[in-house]
Amino acid sequence: MLGLPDWLAHDLPQDEQQELRAFVGQTTVVTDIDAHGYFWLGFGGTVDLEDQARYSGHSFCVTREFLERAID
User: Where are the chain's structural domains?
Assistant: First the structure.
């Protein structure tokens, strides 16, 4: 992720803004591209709890200009 859109973080508390800014420069998987062309990202992990799984972390969307394709 190359940056964080102002519209995504401007209404969030400072601590949450800092958490999201920490993802800039990180690599993650695009989990979805919605009907409006936003790329959904997930930063976190899944924990298996007996017969269920729980995701913990952040999931949010950005536009294409905030992303760069990573080389495998």
Answer: 6-66
